[in-house]
Amino acid sequence: MKIIFKIDGGIGKSVAATAVVAAIKKQYPDSKLIVITGYPEVFEGNRKVYQINRHNELNYFYRDHIEGQPDTLFFMQEPYIHTNFIHRNGHLNKVWSEMNGITWNNEMPELFISHKEKTSHSKMFESPKPIMVIQTLGGMPNQTDKYSWPRDLPMATAQKIVDHYCQTYNVVHIRRKDQPTLQNVYPVEAGFRQLAVLIAMSKKRLFIDSFAQHTAAALGLQSVVCWIANVPSQFGYDLHTNIIANAPTLEPELRNSILSKYNTNGPETEFPYNNEEEIFDINKIIAAVDTL
């Protein structure tokens, strides 16, 4: 029997989905699991997956997987529009699994990195000081606003944290070239597998709700994760130290909110604070990072 599991969205969602893959294979151990994703590199080395397909590389899909194969199962629904997800009734991966009839047992994301990858990619990040990895900005390439207040760590907050650690640590900032930079950091843009090795090499980790926090969870590495609009009970992991933003100080304008309270692209009219300094307590973040 074949199972077709389709994943839409960004790379962080694909990393999170490796936990759903584990749940599927636990329930259907003899199935041939075929994953359709925009990020096949996430599933490299994952022996639970029989075949990996990129979204735009599905030639002869009907012939190979549907025609004459009535027992093929299709797990292709979008969890973000499921009732339980919208009402925040459980973790994304729980909702995703159960909507496909899969029993959820709190499976964690998984990444499989070979020894050769580790020895090869680690050369890119060799440092005389211990490495602290941060990801303070997320989103898709070429978005109009490079900073999104419901998701990203405010730039001034991030800079103060960097200044606190930069003398002791080599602070490596995961960021795209189109995103704002910080001072006293080593900015890095690399492939997912290389960045996974970087995270594995790090001694301290500070992230937002984006792919790096899912990657750290998949590697079993405790990190500090800062949350504003999203919540760790839906997207995060108990492994991490999750820092929740301070309560809003203003009443936001929410006329354009549809399936969630805030739009992740961060419209200014929805900003519920007097200024960005009110969002997080920097001392609380530093105290959490110190414990790693």
Throw out a few tags for this protein.
single chain; 292 residues; alpha/beta; Rossmann fold; 2 domains; 10 helices
Task: Write up what this structure looks like.
This protein is α/β, with parallel strands linked by helices and 292 residues long. It has two domains: 2-98, no CATH class; 120-290, Glycogen Phosphorylase B (Rossmann fold, 3-Layer(aba) Sandwich), CATH 3.40.50.2000. It is 28% helix and 15% strand. Strands 7-6-5-8-9-10 form a six-stranded parallel beta sheet, sandwiched between helices. Strands 3-2-1-4 form a four-stranded parallel beta sheet, covered by helices on one side. Helix 1 (11-27) packs across helix 4 (92-98) and helix 1 (11-27) packs parallel to helix 8 (211-218). It is globular, with a radius of gyration of 20 Å.
* Average predicted local confidence, pLDDT: 96
Strand order of the largest sheet: 7-6-5-8-9-10
Order of helices and strands: EHEEHEHHHEHEEHEHEHEH
Q: Specify the helix fraction band.
A: 25-40%
For the largest beta-sheet, the strand count, sense and barrel status come to: 6 strands, parallel
- Percent range for β-strand residues: 15-25%
User: Do you know the CATH topology of the largest domain?
Assistant: Rossmann fold
Q: Low-confidence stretches at least 5 residues in length (pLDDT < 50)?
A: none
Per DSSP E runs of 2 or more residues, the count of β-strands stands at 10
Alpha-beta content class: alpha/beta
Q: What coarse outline follows from CA principal-axis ratios?
A: globular
Return the CATH class of the largest domain: Alpha Beta
